[in-house]
Recover the amino acids of this structure.
């Protein structure tokens, strides 16, 4: 699968252009399972390190990399693709079977090939949410546009301090505080049993100075960077199993930019 994607990316030499978009459509399993279940090799997926290697070997820098797949809006995914793209579009949740609605945004770019990537992405996201509401109203829909440069320069330091302090709580007699905070936190994709929770909600419930500072940094970033784009409610998520009292620092999920939930 890595060779397949790499082969497609080599088309830059055959089709030179001012802008490149890469959209990967298939099943997704987040940072652990990766992307794209291989029909020829049962159970095999393209892991994030394989995606990074294919992007590196391609020599292409994209305006936008998108995953029309479940659960790929993770911080690991964002950091993996950051050197190779300006923006990332992905879903934190399971995507319904209809996937993205391609007609609207492809027509938009065919009419105006100079359209700003942000404006094109907003059209894509709006169309997707509306189609889910229209065709599968029983489903949830999440999709976010991530500014990779801003994210990579804003998140790591406060996240590192938060991770370290919370790890110390888990290793001490205060592990119940972490477990109780996790138990009350908003969870997504529960049916997949990957313990995907809203990180800002979790951090605020935990209430340590590092957790509150991290939550404030994320909310501040949202207010500064997303409000002007009409994208609200962007949070991060983490993978945390309270039954095992293990906090896996790698699993952090970017909350959707646009959200529709059936009441």
């Amino acid at each position: 699968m890595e060779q397949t994607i790499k082969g497609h990316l080599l088309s830059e030499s055959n089709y030179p252009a001012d802008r490149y978009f890469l959209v990967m459509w298939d099943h997704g399993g987040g940072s652990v399972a990766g992307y794209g279940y291989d029909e020829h090799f049962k159970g095999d997926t393209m892991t994030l390190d394989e995606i990074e290697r294919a992007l590196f070997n391609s020599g292409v820098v994209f305006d936008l990399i998108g995953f029309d797949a479940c659960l790929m809006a993770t911080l690991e995914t964002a950091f993996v693709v950051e050197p190779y793209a300006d923006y990332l579009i992905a879903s934190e949740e399971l995507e319904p079977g209809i996937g993205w609605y391609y007609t609207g945004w492809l027509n938009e770019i065919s009419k105006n090939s100079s359209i700003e990537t942000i404006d094109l992405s907003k059209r894509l996201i709006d169309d997707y949410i509306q189609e889910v509401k229209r065709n599968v109203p029983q489903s949830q829909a999440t999709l976010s546009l991530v500014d990779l440069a801003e994210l990579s320069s804003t998140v790591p330091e406060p996240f590192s301090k938060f991770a370290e302090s919370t790890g110390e709580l888990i290793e001490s007699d205060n592990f119940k505080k972490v477990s109780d905070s996790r138990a009350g936190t908003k969870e997504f994709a529960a049916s997949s049993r990957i313990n995907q929770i809203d990180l800002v909600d979790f951090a605020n419930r935990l209430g340590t100075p590092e957790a509150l500072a991290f939550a404030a940094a994320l909310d501040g970033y949202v207010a500064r960077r997303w409000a002007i784009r009409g994208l609200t409610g962007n949070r991060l998520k983490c993978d945390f199993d309270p039954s095992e009292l293990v906090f896996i620092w790698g699993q952090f999920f970017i909350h959707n930019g646009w959200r529709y939930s059936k009441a």
In short: The beta strands are 21-25, 62-68, 85-90, 141-147, 187-188, 196-198, 236-241, 246-254, 258-260. Residues 221-263 have pLDDT under 50 and may be disordered.
